[in-house]
Amino acid sequence: MIRDIVKPTLTLAAVAFICTLLLSYVQKFTEPAIKRQKGENQDEALKLVLPGFSVGDAQKISMAGVEFLFWIGKKKVDYKTVKGYAFITAGAGYGGNIESMVGVDESGKILGVSILNQSETPGLGARCVEVANRETLWDYIKNGMPARDYNKERRIPWFQNQFEGIDANAEVRITRRGVWNPEMRPQLLETNAISALTGATITTAAVVQSIRLGMTTLKKALSMRLPDTDGGAQ
Fold it and tell me: In whole angstroms, what separates CA 198 from the centre of its chain?
């Protein structure tokens, strides 16, 4: 009787031990590749949120026990050097944290937003990384290629693209206008608003709130006058 209990227990324990060792080995083996991919994703995001800027190394600071990561970029505009700032922030979405990189100019206007990680519901919140295709079948039949060049509107997911020009220092309003398109930009900017994802208000609010939190943290980080920082984003 005891043998019937002990034998399967030991077998299960041995299997669990072997699985643990294998998982540990796999994690150790894949960790460098994961870090490298994460770095590449961040580099690509920096190009989107700080377009045309020469960006320095990442700077880290601990705020209330939480690590805050940000970058400082510079470029020449009319013979004058201007700065831009990028930071990583996160907010609680429906399926977990939504991590984003946000770029702002010295006045706090958003230059770009790039969502790095999300696990929202496909077809709903996950549309935050959806790239809208505005070409029709007739465009392809007639021209063999897209009839219009929407530049970055075609490359950046529409939900993220609409944040460009929004004032991150002020309240960002959330409206329900459906799928955003470039023609909607002027009217939405007048009220510092963005169009919510249909059926995914939680996802939309999470991104907006995370930008507000990240902007507040960026100001605190810059006020501490770290090396190569002299304020800004006021």
Answer: 19
